[in-house]
């Protein structure tokens, strides 16, 4: 039986899925990324690369034969030859130009994609975007990614940075992010900026949202500001791209009603709605697995 392995290499977790070309899920597996460390046997190889290899080998053993296709997605810009991530500033040292086909020694090329692009492809294949032609997706996690489906086609742009919604400017007076954009959306709601937004009181979105839910007024004000800025970004993107739907995925989307209810309330005030037309904002149907499914689909489609 032919199958593909899709790998979503994130800043916090690695998620893998084995799936047939028809979409039948055979097995899932995940583990921590263990960023900023290297393997003892080879200091030049980040430990997350070894974790990816072990996950692929484990799935292959469990399914009794090797995958025909392997796709991997990660933060950053994918290279033109789709063998690596060519640009990823500020985190995941060693990821840039790491050749996954060479490292995994797979018979066919390992197809490498940006993680948000892959997430949207996963939702187009089996999730909330099935049957839609014009969609934007935001992935809210360690950072903020994004992707655009226009007339049924994934927009990559000239060098692969189309959909980099995390690096749009919301406030010119605030400090710059990793690509020198002041007051970016990533710094407004990305998990890695929580400590800065909360004056060091909270270290993760999960802590912040739990405290806000428990009645912590400071946490509530920080979170409400973050959601307001997210709504401003989404309303702006709707004005520019006029999509059929906006999909929200990534780990932060697990905040559920703590995210979607206030986000809908803010959009009701901010969104331009000619003739009462509003754009639905949908949670990713595949949840945190969108990227892994999309990486598998990308490998099947591109190989």
Task: Please render the helix and strand layout as text.
Layout: E1 4-9, E2 13-19, E3 25-32, H1 47-62, E4 69-74, E5 77-78, E6 85-87, H2 100-104, E7 111-114, H3 115-126, E8 135-140, E9 144-150, E10 153-154, H4 185-189, H5 194-197, H6 205-213, H7 217-241, E11 245-249, H8 257-270, E12 281-283, H9 290-302
Parallel strand pairs: 1-4, 4-7, 8-11, 11-12
Antiparallel strand pairs: 1-2, 2-3, 5-6, 8-9, 9-10
Helix pairs in contact: 3-9, 6-7, 7-8
Could you please describe the fold and organization of this structure?
With 303 residues, the protein is an alpha/beta fold. It has 2 domains: 4-118 and 289-302, ATPase, nucleotide binding domain (Nucleotidyltransferase, domain 5, 2-Layer Sandwich), CATH 3.30.420; 132-284, 2-Layer Sandwich (Nucleotidyltransferase, domain 5), CATH 3.30.420.40. It contains 9 helices and 12 strands. It has helices spanning 47-62, 100-104, 115-126, 185-189, 194-197, 205-213, 217-241, 257-270, 290-302, and strands at residues 4-9, 13-19, 25-32, 69-74, 77-78, 85-87, 111-114, 135-140, 144-150, 153-154, 245-249, 281-283. A hairpin with a 3-residue loop joins strand 8 (135-140) and strand 9 (144-150).
Highest CATH level, the class of the largest domain = Alpha Beta
Order of helices and strands: EEEHEEEHEHEEEHHHHEHEH
Structural class estimated from helices and strands: alpha/beta
Mean pLDDT, nearest integer? Answer: 94
> Helicity, in percent?
25-40%
The DSSP helix count reads: 9
In CATH, the topology of the largest domain is named Nucleotidyltransferase, domain 5
Q: Uncertain segments of ≥5 residues (pLDDT<50)?
A: none
Radius of gyration: 19 Å
CATH architecture of the largest domain, by name, is 2-Layer Sandwich
Number of domains: 2
Strand order of the largest sheet: 3-2-1-4-7
Number of strands: 12
Give the biggest beta sheet. 5 strands, mixed
Distance between the termini: 17 Å
Shape: globular
């Amino acid at each position: 039986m032919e199958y593909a392995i899709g790998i979503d290499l994130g800043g916090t977790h690695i998620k893998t899925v084995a799936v047939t070309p028809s979409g039948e899920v055979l097995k899932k597996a995940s583990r921590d990324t263990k960023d900023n460390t290297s393997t003892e046997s080879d200091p030049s190889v980040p430990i997350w690369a070894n974790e990816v290899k072990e996950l692929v080998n484990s799935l292959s053993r469990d399914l009794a034969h090797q995958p025909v296709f392997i796709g991997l997605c990660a933060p950053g810009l994918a290279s033109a030859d789709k063998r690596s991530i060519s640009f990823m500033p500020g985190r995941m040292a060693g990821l840039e130009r790491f050749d996954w086909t060479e490292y995994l020694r797979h018979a066919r090329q390992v197809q490498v994609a940006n993680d948000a692009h892959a997430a949207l492809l996963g939702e187009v294949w089996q999730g909330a975007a099935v049957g839609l032609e014009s969609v934007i997706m935001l992935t809210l996690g360690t950072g903020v990614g994004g992707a655009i489906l226009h007339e049924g086609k994934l927009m990559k742009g000239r060098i692969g940075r189309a959909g980099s919604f995390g690096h749009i400017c919301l406030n010119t007076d605030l400090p710059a992010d990793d690509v020198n954009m002041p007051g970016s959306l990533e710094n407004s709601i990305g998990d890695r900026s929580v400590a800065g937004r909360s004056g060091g009181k909270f270290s993760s979105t999960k802590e912040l949202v739990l405290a806000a839910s428990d009645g912590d007024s400071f946490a509530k004000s920080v979170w409400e500001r973050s959601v307001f800025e997210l709504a401003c970004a989404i309303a702006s993107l709707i004005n520019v791209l006029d999509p059929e739907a906006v999909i929200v995925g990534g780990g932060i989307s697990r905040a559920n009603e703590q995210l979607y209810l206030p986000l809908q309330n803010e959009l009701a005030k901010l969104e331009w709605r000619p003739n009462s037309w509003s754009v639905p904002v949908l949670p990713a149907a595949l949840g945190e697995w969108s990227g892994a499914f999309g990486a598998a689909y990308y490998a099947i489609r591109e190989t």
